[in-house]
Specification:
elongated; mainly alpha; 2% strand; 2 domains; 328 residues; 3-stranded mixed beta sheet
Length: 328
């Protein structure tokens, strides 16, 4: 059988996971302390192993039943695979990968802390290996795939793609608006699934006492916020991360037709915006993995369509942004 670089949906999901493992390892590799270095080595190795297993399955080097073998045997099977040899596709950085596997074994079995001087080698080795095999075996560019591609709901995914585009265009405030809407839509579905619905505002419309109606509506909103917070925490969302996420949202109000009014012209911090977009994406993917489905109501879909158009227009002409003073 002739070899052609390709990838199935299952392989693509695994490759995105490998990239996430690499990024997690990279972050820990730059942190101080032996524990962080040990985590980094583990996840550099995990990223490579996920890809190696993906190669074996995608290109029929081994079947799923035959995949329960050691790391070294997996690599040998790929190196000796006839289709790869005929096509001249060579397993890259084999010695470096072997050395990383040996270091991972020392970490795992002997709690051996890798030398700080080696961390740069594992960062570079893993990055180069992943970039090479993504192209050679799957015809994918490592730098261009993203967890956003794993988001199943098209509307939410479109918002997150817009957020990434705004980040790339150095528009962190607009990126945060798109990410905020994506999170709100996803968390709305989570809330309705995880916590039974309470009373609705429609019930208040039957009251004739304006002061009482206003007070009860205030109570209703407070209950709603508590209900939403409980639902999110029940999914495993970290209170600390949630607080950080909310603090990053722009000080802005969106009208029903998606016109945005900013209460000040302070730009968002690019690094914090990037963290928020990544966090929202990863959280939504995690909710999906836990079996939650995101459902978009018709009026929400219309709003998102308008918002995506407005974000694109505003990114082209910031003079269209609206600012107003907040009323106390």
């Amino acid at each position: 059988m002739a070899f052609t670089p390709k990838h199935s949906k299952e392989s693509f999901d695994r490759l995105v996971l490998a990239k996430e493992l690499y990024q997690h390892a990279f972050n820990h590799s730059e942190m101080p302390g032996d524990f962080n270095k040990m985590i980094a080595v583990h996840n550099f190795h995990n990223a490579i192993e996920v890809v190696i297993r993906c190669i074996a399955l995608e290109h029929e080097v081994r079947t799923e039943k035959d995949l329960n073998v050691g790391f070294v045997d997996l690599v040998k099977g790929i190196v000796k695979h006839g289709a790869f040899k005929t096509a001249g596709v060579r397993f890259p950085y084999r010695q470096d990968v072997s050395d990383l596997n040996a270091m991972r074994n020392l970490v795992q079995h002997g709690a051996h802390a890798p030398p700080q001087a080696d961390m740069e080698r594992w960062r570079v080795t893993t990055s180069r290996f992943l970039k090479q095999v993504f192209i050679d075996y799957f015809n994918l560019e490592f730098d261009k795939i993203s967890p956003v591609d794993l988001v199943a709901n098209e509307t939410v995914r479109a918002l997150l793609v817009s957020a990434q585009e705004r980040l790339a265009g150095k528009e962190p405030t607009l990126a945060l608006l798109a990410a905020r809407q994506a999170f709100r839509l996803a968390s709305k579905s989570i809330e309705e699934t995880a916590v039974p619905t309470g009373f609705h505002r429609d019930l208040l419309m039957t009251l004739n006492d304006h002061a009482l109606t206003k007070e009860l509506d205030s109570i209703r909103q407070s209950i709603h916020r508590t209900r939403q917070y409980m639902a999110l925490l029940a999914t495993g969302l970290s209170p600390k991360d949630y607080a950080r996420l909310r603090s990053s949202w722009p000080n802005a109000n969106l009208t029903e037709d998606a016109t945005i009014y900013f209460y000040n012209d302070q730009l968002a911090d690019p690094a914090e915006a990037a963290w928020s977009v990544d966090f929202v994406t990863e959280q939504i993917v995690r909710w999906q993995a836990d079996g939650f489905e995101i459902e978009i109501e018709e009026h929400d879909q219309s709003f998102v369509d308008n918002l995506l158009g407005e974000l694109k227009r505003w990114s082209e002409d910031e003079s269209d942004l609206h600012y107003e003073d907040r009323e106390d």
